[in-house]
Design brief:
Elements: E1 3-5, E2 8-22, E3 34-42, E4 45-49, E5 53-56, E6 60-69, E7 75-83, E8 89-98, E9 109-113, E10 126-137, E11 142-155, E12 166-174, E13 177-182, E14 193-201, E15 206-207, H1 218-221, E16 225-232, E17 241-249, E18 258-264, E19 282-294, H2 301-308, H3 320-327, H4 331-344, H5 348-362, H6 375-387, H7 389-406, H8 423-442, H9 450-466, H10 473-492, H11 506-522, H12 536-542, H13 547-561, E20 577-586, E21 598-606, E22 609-613, E23 620-625, E24 631-634, E25 645-649, E26 654-658, H14 662-675, E27 685-686, E28 691-692, E29 695-696, E30 710-711, H15 726-739, H16 741-756, H17 773-804, H18 817-830
Antiparallel strand pairs: 1-2, 2-6, 2-19, 3-4, 3-5, 3-7, 7-8, 9-19, 10-11, 10-18, 11-14, 11-15, 12-13, 12-16, 16-17, 20-21, 20-26, 21-22, 22-23, 24-25, 25-26, 27-30, 28-29
C-alpha cells in the first residue's frame, strides 16, 4: 500500500530483529523473576508481539519481524510487558525511536535503554486550528484586541482502553491570567470534527489612536500563548485521560492577524523529575527502515530492459545483473530485488541458468559445487523462499506444529542430558521425528513448484556436463539447494519461513537443530556421512539409519524434482492455506430479525475459499468461494466508529471485518485481493462506507443494491504466491547502483586495465569477475548513464517538493522533526 504523491508512490517498510533484554527490574516479591514479552508498535498501535519468556530478568527473544508500513507514523516503539500470575499485563518500560532517527541505527545491533511509560508521554495525533486577532472599538471609543481560537479537527488520536471520546480545552496563558474553555465531547472517534470558536480578550482597552492596525503592546504578546489540551472523556472515577497538548505563542501572528496550521500533539511538560535511564534495563534491536520513492513505469524502462536482457549477454558476467552482484557489499543485497524483478517478468529461469552455468564452469572440484555465498547461491535461495513458501507450508508445517506441541525430549548429547531423561528414549523420539520429516520430504516431489523444478533441471544439466566423470554430481548440485538451503534451514528456524509465529522454546529449538543436521546429512549424498558430523554422538546416531534405503529415496526425489518437462497439473487443485487468524466480524444479517453485532471469529483463507469459524478447530460457520469475492476494499472508519476495517464484497452483501492493527488489515486486503484477481466478475466501483439505517453513508443512495460510488482500487497481480511490484524492485536496484557508484567507476578502470595490460592482474582490481572487458565496459557505461538520469529525476522531485510543501500543512504538521531535517538539508544543498 503506497502513498501517492503526484504520480510518485512512497513505500515504507521495516525489518526488525528483537534480540534480548537485560537487567530488567526484579519483580517486587520473593521470586523476583518476570514472565516478559515485547511488542512492536507504530506509535501506540501494536503490530507484533513476541512470545513470553518465563522466569527471567534477561529474556532472549531472537525474533524477526518484517512489515510494510501502511500509514504515517512518528515513532517506532517497543514495549516490554510483564504477565503476572493473574495474566494481567503490566508495562515495565518502552523504547521509542523517532522516524527521523531510524537511519542512525540502520542495519546494526544497538542497545536501547528502556524509558518509563506514563499517560503524559503516550502522545500521538495532530490538531488543526486557527488563531485570528481582531480589533474591537467599544461604544465609548476605546480599543481592545480579541483573540478567536478555532479548534477545527484532530486526526489519529490514541485509543485508550478500547475507546476514544475526545474533547479539547483551550487556554489563554499570560501574566496573571489563565482562561480555559472547553469543546463538546465527540463520542467514539479518534478523528473528531470540532469546528468550535472561543474568544479571549488579549489586551487591556486602550484609547483609540492613529497607531498601526494591530499595534499590540510587545511585553504582553511575548508572554502570551494559547494552549490546546486534548482529553479522553472517561466514565471512571479517577478522571479523564490526557491525550496531548500544544502551546502556541501569540508571536506566531507576527504582522498578520490570522494563523492557521496543523500541529503534532506533544507530551505534557509537567516538570517531573528525570529517572536514571538504566533503572529499567535495556533492549538489543537491529532495525532496517526503508523508504522507496517509486516513479511511474516509463522512468525505469531503460534500466529495467538492461537488467532483463542479462541472461542473453555473452558472457553473463558482462551483464547488468551480474555487475550488480559484483559491486554490492553483500550478495544478498543484490539477490533480493533481482530475483523479485526476474520472477515478476517471468525470466528467472534463464537468468539463473546463465549465472549458474558460469559458476559451474569456474568450479574446479565437484565436491565444492554451489557451496559458497555467490550471487548464484543467494539468488536461488531467494527464489526458493518466494516460490516455495506454500510448498513448505503443505510439506513441513503439520509435523513442525506437532513437534512444537509435543515437547518430547530428544537430546542425545550425554553431556546435555537432564537427570530425568533416558538417552535411549530420547534417541528413539528423535529418530521417529527424523523418519517422519524425511518421508514427507521425499514423498513431496509432485508438489514442488514448477519454477523450482526448472531451475533444478538446469543445475543438474550444467553440473553433469562440467564433471562428466562424477556421476553423483547431478544429484549433489540439486541437493545442495533443496536440502542444505531450503528444507534444513526451514526446520532449524521455522519462524523465519512462516511455519511458526515465534521462535521455538529452547528445548524445541534444540530438537529442531538435531533434526535439521540429520536431514541435511541424509540429503547430502556424501561419501562418508558419519565423518561429516563433528560430534561423536551425532555420528553414532546416524548409524541407526539404513544408508542405502535413504540414499535411494533421496535420489528418486531429486530425479523427480529435476526432470525436464515435469509438470504437476493436479497440484493447483490442492487447497493451499494462505493466511489465518482471529479478527472481528459484523454479523451479515442472514436472518430477517438477526442481530447485526460484532463477534470474534477465526478466519482462514485458501486458494479455494475464505471461511470463518467460531474457534480455530471448529467447522466453518461460513464459506465464501473465491469466485464469489467481487472486491476487497477498506471501510471508512466513520461507518462503525472502528479502526482497521475492511469489506469483502459478495454478490448479495458485504462482509465487514475489523483487523487487529493497520499492518494486519493491509496484509488481509492484499492477499484477498490478490487471490480473487482471477475473478472475471470483479467490481469496478464500490461503496467506501457501510449501508446503515436504510442508506449508504457515503453517497446516501437508499437501495442496498445501488451501484458503487467510488472506483475500486484494483489490486495486485493474480498470482497467489508472489507479490512483486516491478517498478519498486527496479527503484531498489537503482538505489544500490547509486550507493555503489564508486565501485562501478573502479570496475570501469579494471576493464581498461585488463584490456591493455596482459601481465599479472593488478591487486586493486582482483575483486571483480571480468571475463570480457570490452562487453563489461559497455554495460557499465549504460548503467552509469541510466543511474545518472534517475538521480536527476529524484533530485528534481525533491526540489519541487521542497518548493511546494508548506510546514504546518496536514502532511507536515508543525512539530514534524523529519520534515524539519529534510527542509534543512534541502536549504543547505540549494545554497
Amino acid at each position: 500500500m503506497a502513498v501517492e504523491e503526484e504520480g510518485l508512490r512512497v513505500f515504507q517498510s521495516v525489518k526488525i530483529k528483537i534480540g534480548e533484554a537485560k537487567n530488567l527490574p526484579p519483580y517486587p516479591g520473593p521470586n523476583k523473576m518476570r514472565d516478559c514479552y515485547c511488542t512492536v508498535n507504530l506509535d501506540q498501535e501494536e503490530v507484533f508481539r513476541t512470545k513470553i519468556i518465563e522466569k527471567s530478568l534477561c529474556p532472549f527473544y531472537g525474533e524477526d519481524f518484517y512489515c510494510e508500513i501502511p500509514r504515517s507514523f512518528r515513532h517506532l516503539s517497543f514495549y516490554i510487558f510483564d504477565r503476572d500470575v493473574f495474566r494481567r499485563d503490566s508495562i515495565i518500560g518502552k523504547v521509542a525511536v523517532k522516524k527521523e532517527d531510524l537511519q542512525k541505527y540502520h542495519g546494526r545491533d544497538t542497545w536501547f535503554q528502556f524509558q518509563h511509560v506514563d499517560a503524559d508521554s503516550e502522545v500521538q495525533g495532530k490538531v488543526h486550528l486557527e488563531l485570528r486577532l481582531s480589533e474591537v472599538i467599544t461604544d465609548s471609543g476605546v480599543v481592545c484586541h480579541k483573540l478567536a481560537a478555532r479548534v477545527i479537527e484532530c486526526q489519529g488520536l490514541p485509543i485508550v482502553n478500547g475507546q476514544c471520546d475526545p474533547y479539547a480545552t483551550v487556554t489563554l496563558l499570560g501574566p496573571s491570567r489563565s482562561e480555559a474553555k472547553k469543546t463538546k465531547v465527540k463520542r467514539k472517534t479518534n478523528n473528531p470534527q470540532f469546528d468550535e470558536v472561543f474568544y479571549f480578550e488579549v489586551t487591556r482597552p486602550l484609547s483609540y489612536t492613529r497607531r498601526s492596525h494591530f499595534d499590540i503592546e510587545e511585553e504582553d504578546v511575548d508572554k502570551m500563548a494559547v494552549r490546546i489540551d486534548l482529553w479522553n472523556a472517561s466514565n471512571l472515577k479517577f478522571g479523564d485521560e490526557f491525550l496531548g497538548e500544544i502551546k502556541i505563542p501569540l508571536t506566531v501572528l507576527g504582522q498578520s492577524s490570522v494563523h492557521e496550521a496543523w500541529y503534532f500533539l506533544q507530551p505534557r511538560d509537567n516538570g517531573s523529575k528525570s529517572i536514571k535511564p538504566d533503572d529499567l534495563g535495556s533492549l538489543r534491536l537491529n532495525i532496517v527502515y526503508t523508504e522507496d520513492h517509486v516513479f511511474p513505469a516509463e522512468y525505469y524502462c531503460p534500466l529495467r530492459d538492461l537488467l532483463l536482457k542479462s541472461a542473453d549477454v555473452e558472457p553473463v558476467s558482462a551483464s547488468a545483473a551480474h555487475v550488480l552482484g559484483e559491486v554490492c557489499r553483500e550478495k544478498q543485497e543484490a539477490a533480493i530485488p533481482l530475483v523479485r524483478l526476474f520472477l515478476h517478468y517471468g525470466k528467472i529461469v534463464p537468468f539463473l541458468s546463465a549465472i549458474a552455468n558460469a559458476e559451474v564452469n569456474r568450479t574446479l572440484d565437484p565436491n565444492t559445487i554451489f557451496r559458497g555465498n555467490s550471487l548464484t547461491s543467494k539468488c536461488i535461495d531467494e527464489t526458493m523462499k518466494l516460490a516455495g513458501m506454500h510448498y513448505l507450508q503443505v510439506t513441513l508445517k503439520p509435523i513442525i506444529d506437532e513437534i512444537c506441541g509435543d515437547h518430547k525430549p530428544c537430546e542425545i548429547d550425554p553431556v546435555k542430558l537432564k537427570d530425568a531423561e533416558n538417552l535411549d528414549n530420547n534417541r528413539e523420539n528423535l529418530r521417529h521425528y527424523v523418519d517422519r520429516i524425511f518421508t514427507v520430504i521425499t514423498n513431496s516431489g509432485v508438489s514442488c513448484p514448477t519454477v523450482m523444478c526448472d531451475i533444478f533441471f538446469s543445475l543438474r544439466e550444467s553440473a553433469a556436463k562440467r564433471f562428466q566423470v562424477d556421476h553423483d554430481v547431478r544429484y549433489t548440485a540439486v541437493s545442495s539447494f533443496i536440502f542444505l538451503r531450503f528444507f534444513a534451514p526451514a526446520i532449524l528456524s521455522p519462524n523465519l519461513f512462516h511455519l511458526r509465529p515465534h521462535h521455538p522454546d529452547p528445548q524445541t529449538s534444540r530438537t529442531l537443530t538435531l533434526i535439521s543436521k540429520t536431514i541435511q546429512t541424509l540429503g547430502s549424498l556424501a561419501k562418508s556421512k558419519s565423518a561429516s558430523f563433528k560430534e561423536s554422538y551425532m555420528a553414532s546416531f546416524y548409524d541407526f539409519f539404513n544408508e542405502h534405503k535413504y540414499a535411494d529415496a533421496v535420489k528418486n526425489f531429486l530425479d523427480l524434482i529435476s526432470s525436464s518437462g515435469r509438470r504437476d497439473h493436479k497440484r493447483i487443485e490442492t487447497p493451499i492455506m494462505l493466511k489465518e487468524g482471529f479478527m472481528i466480524k459484523r454479523a451479515q444479517g442472514r436472518k430477517r430479525f438477526g442481530r447485526k453485532n460484532f463477534k470474534k471469529r477465526w478466519f482462514r483463507l485458501t486458494n479455494h475459499e475464505f471461511t470463518y469459524h467460531k474457534n480455530k478447530v471448529d467447522h466453518p460457520l461460513c464459506n465464501i468461494p473465491i469466485e464469489n469475492i467481487l472486491a476487497v476494499e477498506k471501510l471508512e472508519e466513520e461507518s462503525f466508529k472502528m479502526k482497521n476495517m475492511f469489506q469483502v464484497i459478495q454478490p448479495e452483501r458485504a462482509l465487514y471485518i475489523q483487523a487487529n492493527n493497520c499492518v494486519e488489515a493491509k496484509d488481509w486486503i492484499d492477499i484477498l485481493t490478490k487471490v480473487s484477481q482471477c475473478n472475471n466478475k470483479r467490481l469496478s466501483t464500490y461503496h467506501p462506507s457501510a449501508y446503515l439505517n436504510g442508506h449508504w453513508l457515503c453517497c446516501k443512495a437508499s437501495s442496498d443494491s445501488a451501484a458503487g460510488c467510488s472506483p475500486c482500487t484494483g489490486g495486485l497481480p493474480a498470482n497467489i504466491q508472489l507479490n512483486v511490484d516491478g517498478d519498486r524492485e527496479t527503484e531498489r536496484i537503482y538505489s544500490l547502483f547509486s550507493t555503489y557508484m564508486s565501485k562501478l567507476d573502479k570496475m570501469q578502470e579494471a576493464c581498461g586495465s585488463k584490456s591493455v595490460y596482459d601481465g599479472p592482474e593488478q591487486e586493486e582490481y582482483s575483486g571483480f569477475v571480468i571475463d570480457d572487458p570490452q562487453e563489461t565496459y559497455k554495460t557499465l557505461k549504460l548503467l552509469a548513464a541510466n543511474v545518472h538520469t534517475l538521480e536527476q529525476e529524484h533530485a528534481q522531485y525533491k526540489k519541487d517538493k521542497f518548493m511546494k510543501t508548506k510546514y504546518g500543512s496536514q502532511e507536515h504538521p508543525i512539530g514534524d522533526k523529519s520534515f524539519q531535517c529534510y527542509t534543512r538539508q534541502q536549504s543547505e544543498s540549494s545554497t
